Protein 1
Amino acid sequence: MLKVAIVGCGKIADAHASQIQRIKGCEIVGVCDRELLMAKQLYERFPVKSYHADLSELLNQARPDVVHITTPPQSHYEIAKFCLEHGAHVYVEKPVTLFALEARSLVALASEQGLKLTVGHDDQFTHVARRMRQIVQDGYLGGAPTHMESYYCYDLIQPGYARALFGDKQHWVRRLPGRLLQNIISHGIARIAEFVTSDAPRVMAYGFVSPLLKRAQEHDIIDELRVIIADEDRATAYFTFSSQMRPSLHQFRLYGPKNGLILDHDQESLIKIRGTRFKSYTEKFVPHLDLARQHLGNLKRNVNTFLARDFHMKSGMKFLIESFYRSITEGAPLPIPYREIQLTATIMDAIFEQLVPRRTAAANSLGEPDRLPQVRQSVLEGAVRQPCRV
Amino acid sequence: MSPIHGAHGMSAAVEGDSTVAPNDPILITGATGFIGSRVARRLLDRGFRHVRCFVRPSSDVAGFEAIAGRSRDGANIEVIEGNLLSRDDCMAATRNVSVIFHLAAARGEKSFSDAFMNSVVTTRNLLEASVQHGCLRRFVSISSFAVYTNTRKSRWRLLDESSPVEKHPELRGHAYTFAKVKQDEVVKEYSDRFRIPYVIIRPGYVYGSGNEAITNRVGIGTFGIFLHLGGPNTIPFTFVDNCAEAIVLAGLKKGVDGQVFNVVDDDLPSSREFLRLYKRNVRRFRSIYLPHALSYLLCGLWEKYSSWSEEQLPPVYNRRAWHAFWKRTRYSNEKAKTLLGWTPQVPTGEGLNIYFRSCREKARHA
């Protein structure tokens, strides 16, 4: 029986606990939150053996094999490091860390300790995302991708999150070096990182505060972002984050030398786009029939998956957790290669460096890992003191 | 702002049997909210001169200036911006306070953790800060009818303060219910441990200008068409100004420490009557009535499916929820009338007219 613990008992911890309890061969031996009441409420609602306010106590008493870290990102690095040093495998919610250097440091530590690490890029493991991956592996694109477009939008009208963020000037999201963007864009960037071959792609970012937020006197939260990512001279990618565009897309478009694919996360649909054209007027009629057939196919597949009781909103998270646990217990490959985790963090670093000047200075001064705590402190303080300007 | 206030002679000077003197500081959390703003006005109208309003930094406090302008000479509205999750902010807010009206809550929150954090952790922080200061004479905690199980069928289905509370609120499937049950528990725990005098107010469905929604006790519109579930049930309405008056009395009346009060108005309409009036006065829409036996069956089926499918559909409709929201029930406000001396000054008919007018206004500006 794999012993699992959860550190951080906020909203996302519920999703973890829900999915973990659906997986056979594991049990939640403890939950931990600095606020004991929060740990207790999770303990009361799920089959959990113990609750704690202290991480050392959790690790020493519950002795988990795996720790899920669902705290705000500011603490991911320290908690993950502490858990790895105490012999526990680690699943860290996204974004894995505040800085790419920290992500690299955690990967190195995990490897050194003979332990496993993964990050909560669970959107990469929904039914449709897995289907897309299989089709790409089967060669449908006709070669390596030449261009990608990743849309990851966020509707700030959603009452819960927006009310918490805008109502609290000290909200932890505001204190992230990349603010709102850092907490949200990982999923959309990870989709691109999966297909980027260079370890240091060129990143050009442009961000601004939307008129809506300006009207609400929110001048510090960048909620519109456009990014071009150049994978040397092989491939390019556009990334779009928007709080204002409608529909509020969560899409990934992948184009190869022969064909393309469009994945829609919200609708759980995958559409194949043929690279060749029909002759003359037939191009204006036949493709529509093909698209209609594909949409009906998506509908049928979704209905069947629902009827099979396998269409949970967090099905991707369950698959990712199960795969991660298999990599621990059976030595199966990691669900997310370390390279992809680090590359996602590297691209995000590059984006925020262009949006937040102070962060650039601190990032440039990064040298050896043992200077990390001072640099973190410097950047975090700066993020609190200084408004985020483009 | 609703012009109702004062129109029915509710305002009264501070009476002799009050827990606090006119110059004692009084704290209101959630003071810019639907009920909180009315509580603030009532306290000022009663002659209290030091009302401290705790608000989120994003709250619109312009309304307080108007309230202060209407109040009696020498009244001081102190606005403190902060977050009840911060212990420091709670310490600052509760300094020298004699009565706390704790109205801030996580309404409409779907996440259990967030609802818990914004109801229970915040309440605990306020209570702990009050213990530190040692000058609190009354903590008025706002709970809800949602905390009752309502499974008991004796006494002609009467629901009153002696009715049992959910022992497993996590199984109700509603974050708000879970948070409110736990909030009540933390208030009682701190009272037992530190002798904090408290009163718990459990309003029914608070309606009025500022809350134009149709309560789910009448029905739900989730599935594209309005499913009318209440039918002949009495809906436990309380008009916002009536509710605010009960809350104020709960903070001021001597000799009611440790009591729980349900707040519902008199002459309550049935769900069917309300829906008919709403359609006549606000807008027409299609609704389908589901008889109680059918709605109970559907809630049971949803509950079973949710469990069988490992919550592919969340268990928001279940038999516990049916008992709490859609079972035919009678309500009593006798305890509040007897011990608090409360009477609902705005008659239900008049309250509904104000509510319908407000609904029409909102629809016009939508």
Protein 2
Amino acid sequence: MENNHSEITEKKSLGQQDTKIHSKNISVHYASKQALFNVNLEIRKNEVTALIGPSGCGKSTFLRCINRMNDLIENCSVEGSLTLDGNEINNPDLDVVHLRRMVGMVFQKPNPFPKSIFDNVAYGPRIHGLASNRQELHQIVEQSLTKAGLFDEVKDRLEDSGTGLSGGQQQRLCIARAIAVNPEVILMDEPASALDPIATARIEELIEELRQNYTIIIVTHSMQQAARVSQRTGFFHMGELVEVDDTETIFVNPSDPRTQDYITGRFG
Amino acid sequence: MASHLERELSSLKQELVGLGTMVENSVRKVILAKEKNDQDLAKSIILKDKEIDQLEIEIEEECLKLLALYQPVAVDLRLMVSILKINENLEQIGDLAKEISRRFISPIENQKIPQFNYSPLSEKVQWMVRKCLEAIVEMDIELAKEICRVEDEVDSISLELTQSIIQEIQSHPEWTKTLINEVFICESLEQMADHAKKIAEDVIYTVNAEIVRHQSI
């Protein structure tokens, strides 16, 4: 039965120079329960890859493999190879703090620190020693808030608490915090699911702008969001990556009937 | 259990087939009216076209509503786009039947012109329109491909017939006014076949996600 899960699902092999992250036969167990089955996926540089699938299908588990967040879960084991720019992420000698600087993450619920707007963004650069003086730190904070499309809205109240912002602003603050440490990859786990349509639209526009400089992987339950923001889409089902292809192909003419059934609302 | 969208699409498809049946009837009647020179039948086709137009609008509005409410993807999206296009093509076949009918009720000088044999052309056109509906109902791509092939035959039959009418015009310029009507009827039947082919192509697209326009099948 498990052999069925080992089918290679990547249809088009990508050029080596395009590949930012390469997953080869990644399997994840939570104790005796297997959550991912031999996932093979290439993530292209400066593209947005959307991961879709029903709850519990393994898409967030896969996302957490990329910055080794699964290390924090007891009895979780990861097998297979996962590389970032050709370097093995699962190497036990890897500096995980450095990995998480390179691979930022934005969560479903905005989670600003109970600190000022400025300190929220300055937190990462401070602990990673990215600024040598106050002026440089200010510069990083301003640039990050600008890239996150938030600076103009908060420039006169940088010392106000981050938790006092609206939901959409808080999420953009979290994005600013993620990019302040100069990552190369941004993981987004349903970043707009707690936001209203206007805040969602701003986040989606931001994702499009950010992909010029970053590689983005977004987990979303919204088909329309996946279709709007991503260039490639992968469909997960029961721990298996069923299909991955150009987003347009997935939403117009998916190859696998399970993908079609899911995106047309026939199961899931 | 079928989803809301599945139920809506199924009912939309039924409406489309209903429109198709009305159009098929108009095509059948206009061919009969031409054969029998039946002006009353021609008038009834013109009246019926208003119903066809109304149903076409209703189907389009329903499509727009479903697009806005459900934002369909994959096979549902392809079906929805095809329904929009098929709807328009059916309505245009209905318009052609109406325009042919108008030629009957226009005052034309009663001239003894030769009778042209429309049967080979009209039988094929009628077959194409009827089979289109079957192809839509069954989503039958083999039938759709056959419809596309028959359209090539219709083209050559229609060309031959038009040429023979033009020859008559050249031999008898005094009949021109009447014979121009015959050319129009011949071209209208050929255009009906064109629309039927487009419908068949949309059926192929719905099933295979392959756009087969402008290529030989």
Protein 3
Amino acid sequence: MLANAIASAAPGEAHAEETELYRRFAPRVRLYGLRHLRDAAAAQDLVQEVFIVVIERLRSGGIRSVEAIGSFILGTSRTIASDLRRTHQRRERLTETFADRAIAVGPIEPTLDQARVDDCLNSLPPRDRTLLVLTFYAEKKASDIASTFEMAAGAVRVARHRALTRLRDCVMGESSR
Amino acid sequence: MTSEQCSRGAWLGDLLDYWVGDLDRDEAERVEAHLFECSECAERLADIATMAAAVAEAVRGARVQSIISDAVLNKLSRDGVRIRTYAPEPGTFIPCAIWPEDDLVVSRLRGDFSGYDELTLVLKADEGPELSRNVDIPLISGTREILTATSASRLRRLPSMRLRLIVSGRRGETEQVIGEYGLEHGGAMSR
């Protein structure tokens, strides 16, 4: 196992294993950061800080249960994200006060054909479109959307899931089915 | 998406609910613990995150034609999207045009749209063909208006013409026109 190999090697000798551990878990830490910090740069900071701690602790034998490395990485992510959130909130307040808001907009995820997403979004049924706009742009929760459209929150969650599936199927084509 | 559950039995719907913040703390922590054990779900969540970012980008870029709410309109405005709004009264034509600085055009259609099983919005040339038809549009509760957003770049391509926005409602088997709203589209303007 990767974590075992790193823990049992001399410090810095398990370079390939450390790289593989990063490859497997860095995307998850980044997602955790995006979910909790809502900012791509802060999420990337989180990835770096978490892996500094994880690799150091593995090398020094400071992790008691290397089999549960995922759990340790998650715990470390929670602790560091909590610190970063406070820093990020201060930074956001400064940005809102002094900077052009348009510049603060997050980057586009690079892996999709944006023109195709635009076309697919515009081809969805009107309710699906509005639901996705409210969810992913206005960042409204199911309970907010439910009261906006006089629906049950559960029905919104089901409809939202169906709308996202339709969008993805359109964007990815038959290969996603 | 590919299937509703991962090979370890976690539900895809839970990942979406997690991503948009619709799970309580305990549920969210349970999903997070699963994500750090299950590479399949981690990839699925990445997929959701990518799609969510692309939707937000499409809206922010004023490239989505949609029924929206005032909350969306306010956020667009805060994001620097330049919005031109028209509010034609039922049964009248008002002049409209698209200016170079416009990103998005919003029509506020007022009327009593409540109590229908289904609402349909049609855009058509005054004496010509339908340009678009949106069946089963959502109605925001407690309001007496429909906000429809259209990309300015799309409208810029239309020649000068009289346009009608027609909202109809269906009750059971009966369909009736609720309101017709006229726009004297002057085409793309320059300053």
